[in-house]
Design goal:
binds nicotinamide-adenine-dinucleotide, eight-stranded mixed sheet
Length: 358
């Protein structure tokens, strides 16, 4: 980190957010909740309504670009802009890039030149960073790295339930997984995407979602198909797992394992009347995190069935929020603050709960 003092363990890590959109504003809150990191600035490309949230939160506002004209546009719209991206890079230890997918490579150059560590999101390819991250799969592999990528919401969801399953049988063999990803058409805040009256198969077969899991846990053999459906609120995965013949598991033991897994919620749909993603989201709103977020992956207990060597289950993914706490854990890995992923996860989640008074 060329522009900062060397980060000593337990010093507060200075975090910047580049792209204060759907993911960026949530990561900013999650970082702000932690006592071992602080937000030193967030960027907007122009003075749009998202700036008001940064002002309300007291997050210093910067322009995504260094052009003086673009920086001045903020003051003209009544916002106090502290400078451009280069100014922000000069005061942070790590930058979380939450720009729209595929613009990362240009940004990465800037971060490297400034000597600042960076985290990208799932819209970027693994090849950009050469490292990917989920808290449960490969926290240790990311200790001290300069650049990583928190995988997409779907891959994060797969990792949450498949990694513990894999670990429970790894001395007997591996998992062979097929996942059908039933994807929301758009985020609730998007008006430009669809479909609104069709079911649209992703004709690239297999879809990238399953194989992306192998960037964090290469031992799991997985393939996937995806379809987009007219809903905005969640993704749903229908998963079939082939276990080694001597797996020694039962439906009950798999459910018990997931009950003990961090950031997984297991509930009985029939008993609770949570029978669809609509009710899962209502549950999330009841929990009370901002934006009605659900950081956990939701598994229907009565949708889990182990028949011989084949395990079947459904899980629901809140696309805008399951990756949020993972970004916090990724910062701890990169800054070598905490080597034990379980300790990091517990710290992250407790701090977020306290932040929202839950
Ligand atoms: P978004 O469009 O809501 O927000 C992106 C923000 O980045 C906007 O504020 C935009 O103005 C800003 N921006 C535009 N160009 C930029 C640039 N060159 N540099 C920096 N910022 C720029 O997008 P999002 O949904 O928050 O997605 C961000 C990333 O997170 C993507 O890689 C996406 O694939 C990934 N992701 C999104 C979701 C989701 O459900 N929204 C879930 C998981 C991962």
């Amino acid at each position: 980190m060329a522009n900062s003092e060397p980060c000593l363990k337990h010093m507060v890590t200075r975090v910047a957010i580049n792209g204060f959109g759907t993911i960026g504003k949530r990561v900013a809150d999650a970082v702000d909740a932690q006592d071992d990191m602080e937000i030193v600035g967030v960027t907007k490309t122009r003075p749009s309504f998202g700036c008001d949230l940064a002002v309300k939160k007291n997050f210093p506002l910067f322009c995504t670009f260094d052009s003086q004209e673009k920086i001045d546009a903020f003051a003209e719209a009544g916002y106090d802009c502290q400078g451009g991206l280069s100014d922000l890079l000069s005061i942070c230890d790590v930058i979380v890039d939450c720009s729209p997918g595929k613009v990362g490579s240009e940004n990465l150059e800037k971060y490297r030149e400034a000597g600042v560590k960076s985290i990208f999101q799932g819209g970027e390819k693994h090849e950009l960073t050469g490292k990917s991250y989920t808290s449960s799969a490969n926290h240790l592999d990311n200790i001290g790295v300069d650049c990583t990528r928190v995988v997409s919401c779907n891959t994060t969801g797969l990792s949450r339930t498949l990694v513990p399953l894999f670990e429970s049988i790894q001395d007997k063999g591996t998992l062979s997984v097929n996942s059908v990803m039933i994807r929301r058409a758009a985020d609730p805040g998007d008006s430009s995407k669809g479909p609104i009256n069709a079911i649209k198969p992703v004709l690239k077969v297999p879809s990238h979602h399953g194989p992306d899991l192998m960037t964090v846990k290469q031992e799991i053999e997985i393939t996937s198909l995806a379809v987009a459906v007219p809903t905005t609120i969640m993704h749903l995965h229908a998963i079939t797992v082939e276990l080694p013949s001597n797996h020694g598991l039962s439906t009950k033991s798999v459910i018990e394992m997931w009950r003990k897994t961090p950031r997984v919620i297991v509930m009985n749909g029939t008993d609770t009347k949570i029978t669809s993603t609509a009710e899962v989201m209502e549950l999330a709103r009841d929990i009370g995190r901002k934006w009605g977020d659900l950081h956990e992956i939701f598994v229907w207990e009565d949708g889990v069935s182990l028949q011989g060597n084949k395990l079947y289950y459904f899980q629901a993914i809140h696309q805008e929020s399951d990756v949020i706490p993972e970004n916090v854990d990724a910062i701890r890995a990169m800054m070598d603050i905490e080597k034990d992923w379980m300790i990091s996860v517990e710290k992250t989640d407790k701090a977020i709960s306290a932040y929202y008074g839950l």
